[in-house]
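Hey, resending since the last one bounced:
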Amino acid sequence: MLKKIYRAMILAKAVSAAMKTLQNSTDAQLAEAGIDRTTYALNVMKQIEADFAKKDAKANATTDAVADANMIHQAI
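The structure tokens again:
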């Protein structure tokens, strides 16, 4: 549960920062940086979620490897 709250806070902070970037930048500045005003906040949110999913997959792989090692050890 704390993990979900933490992730929601991180996601909200990132989207808030993206919105502030959009508010404080001109269209020319955004175009120069390759940022689309209409999809930037959504792209930031998707990137954060993808990072969380990658971290979860890595943690699950590690947990599975430890579980397999424990099963092998118990079988011996």
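The radius of gyration is 19 Å.

Sorry for the duplicate.
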